[in-house]
Design goal:
Radius of gyration: 48 Å
Order of helices and strands: HEEHEEEEEEEEEEEEEEEEEEEEEEE
Largest sheet: 7 strands, mixed
Number of domains: 4
Helix content: under 10%
Amino acid sequence: MAEDMAAYNTIIKKRNAENNGWDSILPVTLAENVLTDEAGGTVASQLASVVKFPTATGTGTAIVISYAPFTYTAGQSFTFVASANNSGSATTIAVNGASTVSLYKPNTTDTPNIVSGKAYTVWYDGTDFFLKASAEGDAVAANVLAGKKFSNDDDTGIVGTMPNRTSTQLATLNPGVQNYIYMYPPEGYYNGSIMVYSGYITDYIPNNILTGKNIYGVIGIAKRRASGNVSAISQNTMWTINCGFQPKQVSIQFTYNARTGYHIRDFEWNVSGQLQYNGVSAVNPTSSGFGIQVQDYMTGGATNITWVASEQ
């Protein structure tokens, strides 16, 4: 009889209201009234025995699952609740007392990070278990703006911690690098309109920057100054002194046979003066210094000239 019933569909019909045809009647049968085996099992009892999310036992890296509906068939899957962390270490799963099978991230041989208390869906490919692809990524909280949520390989709904910099920030200056100024701004996100600075620099003023030089928008007004020494010069010879700029004023101290004299020449005002001894006959400006010529009588002995040139 059972074989005959399996071979045919049973359709229950009744005469329609117009009495000119038949209406099919769909029987309503309770799950507890539908037998599933000769021992009296019912659909209701089987549904009650199904655990949707079994809780794993074993350890974080050797997961044990008891889940009756699962069989080791390619494509089969189930969801379980982890009971321990695996800390990213190699992990296996054993279901219903069968041998252990390796667990990997989707389509890789990388070990997933399992966190206690979270539900994971895995599927079997005939050889290994794989996590069902969902959230993936290697971003961590420090990579995401504070207060914003994201997901990665390890978890979902993670809250970012990266500071969102919305005002001027004090940076750390890295000194001593020629031609460059390096600053380390505080960690965080900058939208391109936020400035950083290295603190108040007392000496960063025009008076400390040479005239004509521009350092990050500050134009220098400081006058250059140079000094040097010349000895054993010849009479009636114009000695050229290169001080790196065209001076506006030159002060000269000359020594001849233990006698000392002074000569001051101001090119801007075109004036000059001698003190004590008239030892210098001419001082002429050049584009990068000046020329100096001594009196005839000073070349016969030991002559030494010390000079100071400035732009002021």
